[in-house]
Write a structure and sequence with these properties.
Distance between the termini: 31 Å
Strand content: 25-35%
Radius of gyration: 20 Å
Structural class: alpha/beta
Shape: elongated
Largest sheet: 8 strands, parallel
Length: about 250
């Protein structure tokens, strides 16, 4: 049975009537051909997931009544993805797949070798919302405005480790590093940094190597495109330290 899930940035309470956005109303009424009394499910990242019934339809608007919370809000992995922007279709792919893989924040950064000069963060957020609706998670990752890598590193939180993909071959195999953390119980809030195609500059690598809570990781013998590297690294982290089923 197909379930229609929508993200609404609004507090929830039982019996409350919530107006859908114009785009959501169009999707529900004109794409899915739903009508009065049909069920949709809403989540807002704070109050779990609610079963709702369509209670009002006009030419361009639609509202629903919240009937019952069907899933309580759950804790999710505290995992950031920091990445150098890439061309449009592939950056959309990264935002969607990273959302499906459970990241809590998407942070685009400009490095010395980044080719892209502008990032449409609203488009990234739209892709993240759509992916969250599709994959069943109860939140949408934060999408930060693009910023220079040096600025991110200058204001780095001391309690968060950073794993950066190092194409020079000096990094530790990611699964080996994560397995050691799991074995010693040293898992902590994490960020994964993916550089641009062409890698980090020498000065950026020197800056990264200065920090004790930054670790160079290796994703294997093949040179991966930036979008592939992001998904590979996130998948490794989820399989060892994340919320995927495990031992």
């Amino acid at each position: 049975m197909r379930v229609t899930r929508l993200f609404v940035d609004h507090p929830f309470s039982s019996g409350q009537s919530v107006s859908l956005s114009e785009a959501q109303a169009h999707y529900v009424m004109n794409v899915l051909r739903m009508g009065l009394g049909d069920l949709v499910y809403l989540f807002n990242g704070c109050d779990g997931e609610w079963r709702c019934v369509i209670d009002r339809i006009t030419r361009r608007r639609c509202s629903v009544t919240l009937e019952e919370q069907v899933t309580i809000q759950k804790s999710e992995p505290d995992l950031w993805l920091i990445f150098a922007p890439i061309k449009r279709a592939r950056i959309d792919f990264v935002a969607a797949k990273a959302t499906e893989l459970g990241v809590s924040a998407l942070i685009p950064v400009f490095t010395e070798f980044t080719d892209v000069t502008r990032v449409n963060t609203q488009r990234l957020r739209s892709n993240a919302i759509e992916a969250a609706e599709q994959c069943g998670r109860l939140s949408v990752p934060e999408v930060d405005e693009s910023i220079k890598l040096t600025a991110v590193l200058a204001d780095w939180p001391l309690d968060r480790q950073l794993l950066y993909c190092d194409e020079t071959g000096s990094g530790i195999a990611i699964n080996e590093f994560l397995a050691k953390q799991k074995a010693t119980g040293q898992s902590k809030p994490t960020a994964i940094l993916i550089g641009p195609e062409g890698g980090f500059s020498r000065s950026e690598l020197d800056l990264l190597k200065e920090r004790t809570n930054f670790t160079a990781i290796d994703l294997g013998p093949r040179i991966l495109r930036a979008d592939t590297a992001a998904i590979a690294a996130l998948s490794c982290w989820q399989s060892v330290l994340g919320d995927w089923p495990g031992e």
